[in-house]
Structures are given as C-alpha cells and as structure tokens.
Write a structure and sequence with these properties.
This protein is an alpha+beta fold and 726 residues long. Residues 544-550 and 593-606 have low confidence and may be disordered.
Length: 726
C-alpha cells in the first residue's frame, strides 16, 4: 500500500476516532442531563410523599389534641391542635401549588384540601362546643360518626395520592436506571470503538477487516441473546415497529393471545392484542398505539380484559415502553403483559373472607344479644321473688341470710351477662359514657357498702383511709363504680378468711387522685400481672379451677378507665404476698355547692296506688312481678300477648304500662306504637335485650324508660315513682 494511501487511511481513522469521541461525550452529556433531571424529579416526588404523609400525620395530631381537650378540658391540649392546624394549612398550600403545576392530580388534591378543611372545621366545632357548652355536646358531635367518615375519606384520598406518587417514583427509578445504563454503555462502546479503530490503524487494513467481522459476529450474538432473553421471561412480550406491526412475540405471549408466531409476525398489534374494558365491554386503547402517540411509557387501566383468539377472556396487567435508538428516536415499542387471573382470584377470595368475617361478627353479636335475653329471662322471677320476700319482711330470721346469698348470686349472674355485653361494646367501639362531676370518696363508700355483706361473710377486715384533698373527678359514676366493684370482687375472692382489705386515696401535685386497694390474699406472679387485663385470662389453671370466673372484669375495667382518661395497674410482691390495684384519675374542682340527692318522692307525697297493665308472656316472671307490684299497693292486670293487651286497655283506666319486648304475637314495640296513636300512658319496657341499639329502639318506639332483666327492685320502684312525679 502506498504512503499517500496510508496517510489517507490514518487521517480517516483519526477523523472517525474524533467523531466517535465527540459523539460519545455529547450522548453522555445528554444522558447525564436526563439522569440529573430524573434525579431532581425523584427528589420532588419524595418530597411530595413526605408532605402527604406529614399532612395526614398532622391531621391525626390535631385529632389527638382535640380528643385530649374534649376529655380533660385543659387548654394545654389545644397546643398540638393549633400547631397542627397551622402546619396543615402550610402543607395544603404546598400541595395545591404542586397541583397547579401538574405534579399532582388536581381533583384528588382539591378533594384532600376540602376534606382536610372539613375535618379541621369539625374538630374546631367540637372544641368550641367543649369550651362553651361542656363535654356532653362535644361528645354528641363526635358520636355522630361524621368525623370518622371524614377521616376515612381523607385517608382514602391520601392513599390515592400516595399511590400516584409511588408509581411515579417507581417509573422515575426505572428511567434513571435505564439512562445511567445507557450512558455507561455509551462510554463502553465509544471506548471499544476507539480502541478498535486504533488497532485498525496499527494493523492497517487487514486487522480492520478482522475487527469488522468480530463486531458483526458480536451483534449477531447480541441479537440472538436478546431474542432468547425475551423469549424466556415469564411475562408475555410483544415488540412492534413504528407502524405498530409485530416484529417479535415470545412463547408466553403466544400462549396468552392464542396467536402462533408465524401468524402474529407482521400483523398490527391491535389484531393480535385485542383488549376491552371489563366493566363497559368497550375496546380499550392499545398501549402500543398510546406509546407511539405520546412517546412515553403507558400502562393499562384496571379491569382490562384480553380477548384471546379462541374467545377466552383473561384479565391482564401490562405496560408499553418506547424503544429508543442511540440517536434518541423511537424505533418501536416493547409491550410486556401478564395473566392477572390469580391476583383477581386472590382479591375475590380476600373480599369473600372479609364478608364472611363481618357476617360472623354480626352473628356473634346477635348470638350474645339472644343469649343474654335467654339467660336474663329465668333470672327475673327469681330476683323478683327474692325482692318480694325481703320487702314483705315475713321471712323467719334464719332464712334471711339464705335469701341474701341467693340475691347476691343472682346479681353476680346478671353482672357476668353485663360483662359479656360490655366486652362486645368495647370491641365494637360502642361503649357509652355519661360523665359528670363526682366524688371519689362517695363512690368508694357506695361500693364498699354494697360489698359489705360479702366482706362480713368472709370474715374480712375492711379499712378505708380516704385522705385525698382533691377527690372530685369528671367521670361516668356508674362506670367508675363498676371498676371499683371488679377490684373489690377480686379482693374478697382471692383473700382468705380473716384477711384484710385496705382502701386509701391521696392527691398529688400534678392534679391527679390516686386510689390504692390492697389485700393480703394469694398474690400474683409477674406472668399473671402481664396478662391480667386481657379478656378471658385468669392466671394459672389451678386458680381457674379453684376460683372460677370468666376473666372479664379486669379487661373491662382497663377499657373503662382508659375511656375515662385514667390509668389502672396491678402489683404484687409474689404468691401469697397480697396484691395492690392502683387507679389514677385527673381531678376537677368541686361543685360550687353540695346538692343533696332528692328522694324518689317529695316528703309530702304519699305512695299512690296505680293501675298497672303488665304485659309478660313468661308465666313465672308475670306472677312474681305482679306479686311484687301488688305488695307495693298497686292494682295489676296481666296480659300475655299484644292482642290481649290491646283488649285489656279499653276495659281499665290504666295509668302505667309495663311490657316485655318479646311476645308471642309481636313485640312490645309493636304494642307501644299502636298505643301511642291514641294514648300517652307512661310505659316502661322490661326486657332481656340490653344492647345500646335495643335501648334506642325502645325509646324510639315510644317507651319512656327501658329496664333490663333481671329487674332490680329498687330501680323499678324509683322509675315508677319518677314517672308518676313527672
């Protein structure tokens, strides 16, 4: 080869090397810019996710502050609410700015802003009610459920926005990875080409020919490797050109579409990949067409169905991505899709399981309600008969302790039923409270008085040191007495005869009152204390066999004290070293003036005989109740059905109706609805159904009062007197 020719080849070689180098640098620059932009977008999407999470978390903080203020009335609980409200407004403003820029769906952001403002308004309204009108009106607003509905909707919109940003993050991560890989590949290819050209210059034309053959062979191997790779992956893959005509289809795609490779190649993608919307049954836009139109990655909407060649329908999930050449131009589209049947089936099974669980929960609640009714009904004549015997005062002295034993055990049985229902209320979040200012000392004395007979029968010594200087608390007195009742019951149950029970109270500087109830009974191990406040837990098998019980009292007490804003804990030095239960509650200022409890009737009002229509189909209960009421001087007529009651009403001038709910030919609510069409006779429902819904239904039907069986004699007498005085 002549020198001029060699020089010409050298010039051509170095010119090509320079062009390759400049081109690789330019491509690397473009790729770097793209990677930088993608990274900046990743940072933005991450900030969006952070702000979304902060917005929802701050709303929860606001709700927590609101609840703390509603429960305590202390202004410091408003600090987290006010801080959260300011931060929420800042976060919402930032999100609205992103929405206006198109970084977030405007509809979802507007909805998120609307729900957030609604939630803040609802929280502020309840706080204003608490400040101006007290706890009960604010609690009533909370019990409407509007706040929970708003919060649930807010979480739902937050989930959608989070999902949108998360998907964007995933796409951006994939895009960044592809760009980085492309940039690296560009450098590698450029380096190889430069080395190859330098080698070609060194070995001249002969070596260059060999290199070209090697490059050609390598390209062929890469194409073969790409085909093998696409053909072996577990998803269906279809590759098209710029005219949407199929250039490659793998085995999975052939199996899913039903089109063999020999027939699919060269056809338009829409002919082979035929998709419709599952709900509307209308053709869905083909992702390949969308990618060619927009130049970006496109995915299917939910509920997309692939119509196979043989007519089969397969739910699928897919995405299409553009194939870019080294010059950045789109050379085709790769479509990746998969059979979504297993996922859809799993979703359906999960939905069915959830529905089955909800149905089982409803069935369980219905069973408990029915069980409580069936257990209460036979207790009613027993409790009523015992009340009659005690009220008449005709029992021989030797029988009185026996009657008291029976009465206590009937009351214990009723308490166990109430515990089961209370547990259900707690689990369902339907525990109701009626708070008012009450004295801890008075409540403790009342419970101790009620339990004095058990203390005496067990030959126990009960001492009380009620020394708290601030004994007033804002609680539901009945529920707090229930807590003390459970603790007293445990103390008398697990303390041997001759033992001691000590009750003491004290106030601390933080505005709380502490109540300690100590006994020198069997004590507890750390393991027993750890599970003491769990439902149906009672310690060792030996204790369960010896002492019995359901293990609900302490679990219910824990839930009640939490709802009242206090704490309860148990401690013991070990077995046979006694136990201590400590209850702490925030205190409030005492009432301005002590108001003595009014008696059931004014002092100048005499007991008045009433004509009572007793509607009860349980014979034993009807007889015992009528005997009790007649012993009080009332005139009682018994009816055992709705029809019998309606026949008796016109025949007697009754001024009080006592009615069971479950009757042979209808319900007590059917009866009162008929009566209320023409009469306002006072009416009391007597029933074994004691859930909140049962009480509400009875009041809505027209009953003035609702008493749960077994009927407490003193409570029945008080309710009758109150209705008469009204």
């Amino acid at each position: 080869m002549s020198v001029p020719v060699q020089k010409k080849l050298v010039r051509i070689t170095f010119s090509i090397i320079a062009c390759v180098l400049v081109s690789s640098l330019f491509v690397a620059y473009l790729s770097g810019r793209a990677v930088l932009k993608a990274h900046q977008r990743l940072i933005l999407e991450t900030e969006i996710l952070d702000h979304l999470n902060v917005s929802l978390s701050t709303m929860k903080d606001a709700e927590t502050g609101q609840r703390g203020f509603l429960l305590t009335g202390e202004p410091e609980y408003l600090e987290p609410f006010n801080a959260a409200r300011r931060q929420i407004n800042e976060e919402l403003s930032w999100l609205m700015t992103l929405s206006a820029r198109g970084d977030l769906p405007s509809a979802d952001v507007s909805r998120f802003n609307e729900l957030s403002q609604a939630k803040l308004t609802e929280l502020g309204h309840s706080i204003e009610l608490r400040q101006k009108e007290g706890f009960a009106p604010a609690l009533a607003v909370m019990q409407t459920g509007h706040g929970k509905e708003t919060m649930d909707a807010l979480r739902s919109v937050h989930a959608r926005l989070t999902l949108t940003s998360t998907r964007k993050l995933a796409d951006l991560h994939a895009s960044t990875l592809r760009l980085s890989t492309f940039r690296t590949a560009t450098f590698i290819v450029a380096a190889l080409l430069n080395l190859a050209f330098l080698r070609w210059a060194y070995y001249r034309i002969g070596t260059e020919a060999a290199r070209r053959e090697a490059v050609a062979a390598d390209v062929a191997r890469q194409k073969e490797l790409l085909s093998v790779t696409l053909g072996s992956i577990g998803d269906g893959v279809i590759v098209t050109d710029l005219d949407s005509r199929i250039t490659f289809v793998n085995r999975v795609a052939i199996d899913l579409t039903g089109w063999p490779s020999s027939e699919a190649l060269g056809k338009r993608c829409t002919d082979v990949f035929n998709i419709i919307n599952e709900s509307t049954r209308q053709p869905a836009e083909n992702p390949v067409e969308k990618v060619l139109r927009t130049g970006v990655i496109a995915g299917l909407a939910n509920h997309t169905i692939l119509i196979c060649r043989d007519g089969r329908e397969i739910p699928i999930d897919d995405s299409g991505a553009p194939i870019h050449a080294s010059d950045g131009k789109i050379r085709g589209v790769v479509l990746v899709f998969r059979d979504f049947s297993d996922h859809k089936q799993a979703e359906a099974e999960l939905r069915r399981a959830k529905e089955a669980a909800e149905e089982a929960n409803i069935a369980k609640d219905n069973f408990l309600a029915t069980l409580s009714h069936e257990l209460r009904t036979p207790l009613t004549p027993v409790a009523t008969t015992l009340a009659v015997w005690e009220e008449e005062g005709k029992l021989p002295p030797a029988f009185i302790p026996d009657v008291q034993v029976m009465r206590r055990n009937v009351a214990l049985e009723a308490r166990l039923i109430d515990d089961l229902l209370d547990l259900t209320r707690i689990v369902r979040g339907k525990l109701t409270l009626n708070p008012e200012v009450a004295s801890i000392h008075e409540l403790i004395r009342d419970v101790a008085s009620m339990y004095q007979s058990e203390v005496n029968s067990s030959n126990l010594k009960l001492s009380m040191h009620l020394e708290a200087t601030r004994p007033y608390v804002y609680v539901d007195p009945g529920r707090l007495q229930q807590i003390f009742w459970n603790i007293f019951k445990n103390a008398t149950k697990f303390t041997p005869k001759g033992g001691t029970i000590d009750v003491s109270t004290d106030s601390d500087d933080s505005g709380r009152v502490k109540i300690d109830i100590r006994d020198d009974g069997i004590g507890m191990t750390p393991e027993t204390i750890a599970k003491l406040f769990r439902p149906f837990e009672q310690g060792t098998d030996e204790i369960v066999k010896r002492y019995g019980g359901l293990g609900l009292g302490m679990a219910i007490s824990k839930a009640l004290i939490d709802a009242l804003g206090g704490t309860i804990k148990a401690s013991s030095q070990g077995m046979h070293k006694g136990s201590t239960f400590t209850v702490e509650l925030p205190t409030v200022n005492p009432p301005y003036a002590a108001t003595p409890q009014a008696s059931a009737l004014p002092a100048n009002v005499q007991e008045v005989s009433r004509r009572i229509l007793l509607v009860e189909d349980h014979t034993d209960t009807a007889n015992a109740m009528s005997r009790l009421l007649r012993g009080l001087g009332h005139d009682v007529t018994i009816a055992d059905s709705v029809s019998a009651a309606m026949q008796a009403l016109p025949q007697g001038s009754f001024n009080l109706l006592l009615s069971d709910i479950g009757l042979p030919d209808g319900t007590g609510m059917d009866l009162i609805r008929q009566i209320r069409k023409s009469s306002r006779i006072p009416a009391i429902a007597l029933t074994g159904f004691g859930m909140e819904d049962d009480v509400a239904d009875c009041k809505a039907a027209g009953f003035d009062e609702h008493l749960t069986k077994p009927i407490n004699f003193q409570k029945l007498k008080t309710v009758i007197d109150q209705i008469r005085s009204e």
